[in-house]
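Hey, sorry to bother you again with one of my protein questions. A protein chain has come my way and I'm curious about its shape. It would help a lot if you went through both lines with me. I owe you a coffee for this, so here goes:
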Amino acid sequence: MNIGACYSSLLRLDLAQSSYEYVQKIWEESGTRPQLAYLYNNIGSVYGKKKELDRAREYFKKALEIREDLGDKKGSASTLGNLGSLHKELGDNESALDFFIRSLELYEEIGNRRGVALTYGCVGGVYTALGRLDEAEEVISRGLAITRELKLKDVEIHCLETITDLYEAKGDLQKALMYSRELKTCLEEHLNEKSMEIIASMQVQFETEKKEKEAEIYRLKNVELSAMNDQLREALADVKRLQGMLPICANCKKVRDDDGYWQQIESYISDHSDAKITHGICPECSIKLYGKDFAQE
């Protein structure tokens, strides 16, 4: 459902439709009627965007039937509004007006002022198309007042568009110009608000990623420091191996180890350090072993 909604908002309508159809098979089998009504309404919206208006109407009616049967007034009002918009696009303004009026009555009944303001704008647009201009002016003005009271920028934009069209139809170009300027300002403010929301969201994401990276760097530094400490401990242990008193035989020069065994000094050094033993003969030993003449050579 969520993937389908994302595709729909991006106008990738074939992908949205395929996502919704996948969900439809599951929910029609499971019989989850409130969710199914929500799904049908979304599928209808996709078909509406694709200009397949008969298919859109079919799904809106299926959604409306379930919602009315369940007593879902808010959902019914939303679907009635969708049907109103669809019939207006078809040029059937009388049917569109009927759907919008029914939607408006439900929104007023449940106290949904956002829905009321939006539907006032829709009703006003149909009144304008039907030439009922004074009625259009009255209802659009009501909707515009609510949007400004509640600071509903997106709905205010809708009402400003319809009231601009109304005054153009009335031939009052001065008021049409005035509201078109208000519409331009409102659009800019709304875009700025959306931009600020996006920037704020990106800032939160940046700060989160920054903290995660800092935590990872700190962790890696600790790992590196721990490894370095281990190396230092090993080195210190190696240094300490040959420290202290070293028992050595005064005659044969063997060394006594910690277990009391006597070893050749070469073996002891090899076992207790990283030193490698090589052999040579010092000058004194050369004379002793081979004579003075050999040592001189």
Q: What stands out?
A: Residues 173-241 form the longest helix (69 residues). The CA atoms of residues 64 and 76 lie 6 Å apart. The longest strand covers residues 255-256.
